[in-house]
Amino acid sequence: MSSQNDLAVEKEVLRAARELVEETAVSFTMDQLAAKAGVSRATIYRQLGGKKAILKRLVDEHGLDELDQPDAPSRILHAARKLFAEEGLLTPTMEQVAAEANVGVATVYRHFSDKFGLIRAFLQASHPYLPLEQADMSGDMRQDLLRLVETMVRFIVENQDMVRLSFSNAREWRDQFSNLRPFQERTLNRVASFLQSQIDAGQLHRCDPQQAATALLGMILSFGLIMPTFYNLPNPEPRETAVFITNLFLDGLNQS
């Protein structure tokens, strides 16, 4: 009888521990565990050992392999990327993302709060770093623009599925999340600001920077996405393509 009682206590403690992991990751206390399981701390220590031993039991017996892996957010974002690429940005549920990442759904909510928080974090993580900060500038406009174009071509080539998704779903998720600006809109505005700074510095002929930025991004998208996708051409080599686009763009502007 005593043995059966001990097994019942262990089962209840492990159940309570698993629920606490779903709620708090591994930050729960032994007092919280004792209260949730309805047994004393002394009983838990006597039958199952300390917190580390209990977590190991959960990993070994309950398949909660995320307990000792601090990269749960990156795993969740990786899972979200896969599902978003397959089903669109708004279709996958938090439960689907959790299952794909092999974590509990409470873990997804704990790290990202809600679906909007997950999408926002995903878009921020997926957006390329554009070398447009003052610290990135060399003072040579052609070289600075070349670096920017190469960065964008390389990003598009490596993430064609997500770039296609962002454009095809842009209106839908802009309507759903009015305070979330699509990355292509942010990129356009940043490139336009860069071109305006070059106009102000006398490095570019005076023109409408928004139109010029639109033309530049159009060329980048044509080479990085449209030509491989719709014309079945091989993916461009980023550096060579960036040189061609940069020269064509600047020479065209300076002759206008």
Secondary-structure map:
Blueprint: H1 2-24, H2 30-37, H3 41-48, H4 51-62, H5 72-87, H6 94-101, H7 105-112, H8 115-126, H9 141-158, H10 160-168, H11 170-176, H12 183-200, H13 209-230, H14 238-255
Helix pairs in contact: 1-2, 1-7, 5-6, 6-7, 7-8, 9-13, 9-14, 12-13, 13-14
Question: How does this structure look, described?
Answer:
- The chain is mainly α and 256 residues long.
- It folds into three domains: 61 residues, Orthogonal Bundle (Arc Repressor Mutant, subunit A), CATH 1.10.10; 55 residues, Homeodomain-like (Arc Repressor Mutant, subunit A); 122 residues, Tetracycline Repressor, domain 2, CATH 1.10.357.10.
- Helices cover 73% and strands 0% of the residues.
- Helix 1 crosses helix 2, helix 5 crosses helix 6 and helix 7 packs across helix 8.
- The longest helix is centred in the first third of the chain and has 23 residues.
- The relative contact order is 0.08.
- The model has no long low-confidence stretch (mean pLDDT 84).
What's this, in brief?
The chain has 14 helices and no strands. With 256 residues, it is mainly alpha-helical.
Order of helices and strands, N to C?
HHHHHHHHHHHHHH
CATH superfamily of the largest domain: Tetracycline Repressor, domain 2
Q: Find the count of extended strands (DSSP E, 2+ residues).
A: 0
- Cα(first) to Cα(last) distance is 93 Å
The CATH architecture name of the largest domain reads: Orthogonal Bundle
* Percentage of residues in strands: under 5%
Give me some keywords for this one.
Arc Repressor Mutant, subunit A; 256 residues; 14 helices; mainly alpha; 3 domains; elongated; Tetracycline Repressor, domain 2; 73% helix
